[in-house]
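Q: I'm writing up a methods section and want to include an example of the input and output format. Could you take the sequence below and give the corresponding predicted structure tokens, formatted cleanly so I can copy it straight into the document?
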Amino acid sequence: MTADLPPLLSVVTPVYGCRACLAELADRLFAVAERLDVRMEIVMVNDASPDAAWEKIRSLAAADERIVGVNLLRNYGQHFAITAGLEHAAGDWVAVMDCDLQDVPEELAVLFKKARDGGYDAVFGRRTARADSAGKKLSSQIFHRTMELLSGVKSDPAVANFSVISRRVVDAVLALGERHRSYGLLVHVVGPKTAYVDIAHGPRREGRSGYGLVKQVRLALDVIVSHTTRPLLFSAVLGFAMAGLSLVAIAWLVIRYFVFGFGVAGWASTMVSVWFVGGMILGTLGVIGLYLGKVFEEVKGRPLYVVAEVTPRAPTGRSDAAAEPALNPTNGMALMDNPQLR
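A: Here is the clean output for your methods example:
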């Protein structure tokens, strides 16, 4: 940031299935920027949206150079799209939010003021009254409780991705090159001074949530296996516990036979025990296999995403490396860098 320019606030929003919301989102965000007296750019990352959202993004970017469009080659998922947006964001501060207007654009002012005036490197919004269905809330509760149990990281269902982070946090998050991404958890891993602010949560204006129960369970498994070894610890503890119970059972059978004269029970109990132990062994091997699979995916070193197209951007007014972030992505790859993907 130069001395004679106000700070640049980049807003990163992954786009999927919400084409009709984009123009209103941009108008409301630019109105917020005027009240905050900051410069703003909006980085809209099209994650292969099926509703021709890229054409809308290109139209908005052509009409206002403060809007930067990033078109991913295929659907990579929300957290990969957020990573792509962070790498293409030039701001001194970067906000991350959904594009469906459930993250209320006017609440961005609350988050930014808290970060700027309170000396925080990261400020997350806490949704006081979620405008979601009962099923969505229930699946979210299950997801976050499972995360807490198996990862050891406190997870609040009221806190999602809507946040403002400083440039140094952005750079630190991008330096974490692991393949399995979870934006909020990666910010937690970096460990900045963080605050949480109560904010309003709006109703969904278009489309439907892409995070059903099955997808949330899959995401939870990815996050847990990628960021903690606690499931392996649970497997080891369970194995030792079962071995201890087996020794107790053997001692009891010996005592029954020699002291009380009772014979050993028949095949039913034996087969049940074999099936149970066999199931636990297979389950433990499955947990180990998940970790080996993650290691295999990490060591391949493939890019997290491929960018098919980026719209021209306005001058950032910065002279450092982040001024032209799209030219040197850390985790992704531009389509023109790999002719085989064209």
